Amino acid sequence: MYEIIDFVTDKNSRILDLGTGGGEKLLKRFPRNVLEIVGTDFSEAMIETANKNLALSGRCNVTFKIINNLDLKFPKKYFDVVVARNTIIDAKQIYEVLKPGGYLIIRGVDKFDCHQLKMIFGRGQACMDKMPISIIDYEALLNAGFKDVELVPLHVREYFKNIETLYKFLLKVPIIDDFSEENFDVKDFYKKELEFDKLEEYVSKNTTDKGIKLLRRYYGITARK
Ligand SMILES: C[S@@+](CC[C@H](N)C(=O)[O-])C[C@H]1O[C@@H](n2cnc3c(N)ncnc32)[C@H](O)[C@@H]1O
Ligand 1 atom 25: the closest Cα is on which residue? Predict the structure, then answer.
């Protein structure tokens, strides 16, 4: 994804990163030699963190703003590239703020991510969605008028050294949560505990020579205005 962003930008490009979080990945991985990068998030706390990270980064072409992805307050045809990593989108609004020929690049986590783990816990992110979010996004982009829309499934095997490291990881991420993209609430993001017996059941079925296996299902979408 970062290679694609590099490939489609140059020194005159303006990039918008929606739902940027604390801005860590943007500051580390987005190209330096561009005109402007704006990172947005509706969480005041995330933007506060992002601004602290920005001050430490020494980068000067980046700003962070509190903005809701569903209410994009930018001039029409302003950005050359819009990026949405693991966050909600409104295809029509993104279309409006992109220049003609501009790119939209999405990366997300799909319904069947960590499926076996979610089945053992009896719940999980996007588990109950009728349609995978990747397909919803894909259709929304076509309906908004985007062309060259490509959806790529990204299947990754991740390995954890032991049950404790997997447990700590699951406390920090929203995999074993019931929310979907439609009802995301940042205050529910961090859990305090999980059912350890259920995790043990998963571990007993997924321990390999390389460690405890977790099957991730991400997706990527590229599209042009
Ligand atoms: C899972 S985090 C992803 C952070 C970052 N993009 C990444 O991939 O590392 C989702 C982010 O989207 C933000 N978010 C969720 N819904 C949003 C909305 N409607 N408008 C703006 N930001 C939103 C959250 O505050 C959170 O920072």
Answer: 43
